[in-house]
């Protein structure tokens, strides 16, 4: 009986391991950058990213010591911020999450996209090399690749994007890109038709304004 049980376990082990490695993402989510996150706005048109509740070990600037050489929105609608240190420097996961994409992707070159538990996605591209695969769980600060100039890039750097429901927004709302620190507050994402409006959430704004009016 014992032998049968052992044999069964050995036989089933590859099946169990295979099931655990199965990617939680659909074929499209693994293939395309711009895809909606299933169920993200199912209950409400608003989503709040509570940056203020993150502990020190739960976030990391993607390229420590890096300098922004091209900000979001520049050059006719740059979809991210270009951060530079030197060639083959270590790129780090900004937050805990699961790798959705890791592959060469058109002008992005070698690209990594991570989906975080709060719905935010971060993207890192032009990498010389990726260290992670789709379906991998990563921790904030974990090395995910090396800076390069793959795809359409004129210098070694990381092109860093923040996305909600597949749509990019200014990463300066999440990180102070100059100080390389996390913003201490709350970010409000509102679904507006097919678009998403992302803003710093200031719940006390109206109160403050009213107070000013009274004075
Ligand atoms: Zn860029």
In brief:
A hairpin with a 5-residue loop joins strand 5 and strand 6. By secondary structure, this protein is an alpha+beta fold.
How would you characterize this protein structure?
The structure is a single chain. It is built from 4 helices and 16 strands. It is globular, with a radius of gyration of 20 Å. By secondary structure, the protein is an alpha+beta fold. The longest helix has 20 residues, at 2-21. The N and C termini lie far apart (85 Å). The protein has helices spanning 2-21, 27-31, 74-77, 205-214; strands at residues 46-50, 67-70, 81-84, 90-92, 97-104, 110-115, 120-127, 129-130, 137-138, 143-146, 158-164, 167-169, 175-176, 181-182, 186-192, 195-201. It has one domain (36-214): Glucose Permease (Domain IIA) (Distorted Sandwich). The strands form 4 sheets. Strands 2, 3, 5, 6, 7, 9, 11 and 12 form an 8-stranded antiparallel β-sheet that branches. Zinc ion is lined by residues 70, 78, 80, 82, 159. Zinc ion binds next to loops.
């Amino acid at each position: 009986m014992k032998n049968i049980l052992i044999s069964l376990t050995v036989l089933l082990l590859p099946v169990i391991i295979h099931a655990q490695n199965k990617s939680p993402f659909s074929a499209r989510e693994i293939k395309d950058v711009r895809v909606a996150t299933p169920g993200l706005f199912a209950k409400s048109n608003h989503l709040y990213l509570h940056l203020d509740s993150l502990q020190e070990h739960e976030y990391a600037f993607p390229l420590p010591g890096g300098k922004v050489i091209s900000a979001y929105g520049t050059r006719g609608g740059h979809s991210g911020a270009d951060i530079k240190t030197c060639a083959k420097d270590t790129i780090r996961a900004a937050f805990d999450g699961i790798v959705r994409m890791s592959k060469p992707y058109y002008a992005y070159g070698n690209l990594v996209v991570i989906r975080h538990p709060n719905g935010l996605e971060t993207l890192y591209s032009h990498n010389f090399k990726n260290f992670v695969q789709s379906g991998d769980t990563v921790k904030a600060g974990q090395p995910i690749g090396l800076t390069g100039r793959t795809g359409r890039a004129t210098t070694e750097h990381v092109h860093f994007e923040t996305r909600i429901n597949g749509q990019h927004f200014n990463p300066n709302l999440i990180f102070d890109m100059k100080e390389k620190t996390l913003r201490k507050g709350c970010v409000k994402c509102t679904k507006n038709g097919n678009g998403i409006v992302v803003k710093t959430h200031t719940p006390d704004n109206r109160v403050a304004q009213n107070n000013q009016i009274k004075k």
